[in-house]
């Protein structure tokens, strides 16, 4: 396992983060404990969860693991959790209001059995709560010693910029990370969101780097998903996600190249997909969501896998998103370009 700095914190984190969304639901406690033990043994230290994962069971399971392991093991973990989505029937049990964040954080700490969380992330934007209110609530949590650093998740580019600029202007805790969906078949964040994160020095913690398992190599075009796969296990949401991905020919073409690169390295398709994301600009650590210890063992290799420049270029090319002509396509791009060499300037022919 390699280490990278969590931007703006001085904290070293593993270049693969362990996601725990399925702990307590898809993955039982014994298997989850084995996954956590192996991840730490492999020198992984960044563990991500959220208050809504399994309606709190993921955090509870993590709390029992922390309580059952010696301090020399658990003290190495850099723990991240999130809040924003609804946890109950009350309309105020959702969003990023001071009321909800304060209660959600206290509840998370109780489930985790911790006094402090290293990284507390807004799980999404809340259009009903002024960002100043949200940021002051987070800052107060930092001052109270309940949170060390704050982060964002699922924000758009302008929302990232507004959150960072407001925090800086008011002297509050500035977000240090952004957790977006990012994979070889989901690259649209490169238009605005990645540049906003890079400009503001936020580290990216991509979720679903295997696109809900599509890039694992377990699926074949035109064939029904096996019952041992995420898409074939009977979960309606996973079936819907797979159906959308499978409907796009470019995704299958991308998977073909992933398989070819994997064969050249004698590794799995998933390891190649993880390695590609791990080495994208601004990425601190993609989140690996292993359901079994075997899956974790396979995924851990990705942290040390190095793709050649040629292999990376092939993957970049086959997976490149195709935007409309404006604002992110050729016509829109030309509106924002300028060159020192006048011969490169687009003049009359642009219009």
From TrEMBL:
Q: Does the keyword Oxidoreductase belong to this entry?
A: yes
**Gene Ontology molecular function: any one:** oxidoreductase activity
Q: Enumerate the spans annotated as NADP-dependent oxidoreductase domain.
A: 16-319
Which SUPFAM superfamilies does UniProt cross-reference here? NAD(P)-linked oxidoreductase (SSF51430)
What Pfam families does the annotation carry? Aldo_ket_red (PF00248)
Q: Extract the InterPro entries matched here.
A: AKR_Detox_Biosynth (IPR050523), NAD(P)_OxRdtase_dom_sf (IPR036812), NADP_OxRdtase_dom (IPR023210)
Name the GO cellular-component terms.
cytosol
For this UniProt record, the keywords arranged alphabetically read as follows: Oxidoreductase
PANTHER family linked to this entry: NAD(P)-LINKED OXIDOREDUCTASE SUPERFAMILY PROTEIN, NADH-SPECIFIC METHYLGLYOXAL REDUCTASE-RELATED
Please state what the protein is called.
Answer: Predicted oxidoreductase
């Amino acid at each position: 396992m390699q280490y990278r700095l969590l931007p703006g914190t001085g904290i070293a984190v593993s270049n693969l983060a362990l996601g725990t969304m399925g702990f307590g639901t898809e993955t039982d406690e014994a298997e989850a404990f084995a996954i956590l033990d192996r991840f730490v043994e492999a020198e992984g230290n960044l563990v991500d969860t959220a208050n809504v994962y399994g309606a709190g069971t993921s955090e509870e399971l993590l709390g029992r693991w922390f309580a059952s392991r010696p301090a020399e093991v658990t003290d190495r973990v850099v723990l991240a959790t999130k809040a924003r989505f609804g946890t109950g029937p009350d309309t105020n049990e959702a969003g990023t209001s001071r009321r909800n964040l304060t209660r959600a954080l206290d509840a998370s700490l109780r489930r985790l059995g911790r006094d402090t969380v290293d990284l507390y992330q807004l799980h999404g934007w809340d259009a009903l709560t002024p960002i100043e209110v949200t940021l002051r609530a987070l800052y107060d949590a930092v001052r109270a010693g309940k949170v060390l650093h704050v982060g964002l998740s699922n924000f758009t580019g302008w929302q990232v910029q507004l959150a960072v600029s407001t925090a800086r202007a008011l002297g509050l805790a500035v977000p240090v990370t952004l957790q977006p969906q990012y994979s070889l078949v989901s690259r649209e964040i490169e238009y605005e969101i990645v540049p906003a994160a890079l400009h503001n020095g936020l580290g990216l913690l991509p979720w679903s780097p295997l696109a809900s398992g599509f890039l694992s190599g377990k699926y074949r075009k035109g064939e029904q998903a096996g019952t041992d796969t995420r898409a074939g296990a009977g979960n309606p949401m996973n079936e819907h996600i797979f159906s959308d991905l499978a409907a796009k020919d470019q995704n299958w073409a991308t998977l073909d190249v992933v398989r070819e690169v994997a064969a050249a390295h004698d590794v799995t398709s998933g390891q190649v997909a993880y390695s590609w994301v791990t080495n994208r600009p601004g990425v601190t650590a993609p989140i690996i969501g292993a359901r079994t210890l075997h899956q974790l063992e396979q995924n851990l290799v990705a942290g040390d896998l190095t793709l050649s420049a040629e292999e990376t270029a092939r993957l970049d090319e086959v997976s490149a998103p195709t935007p409309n002509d404006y604002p992110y396509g050729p016509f829109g791009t030309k509106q924002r370009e300028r060159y020192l060499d006048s011969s490169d300037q687009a003049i009359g022919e642009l219009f």
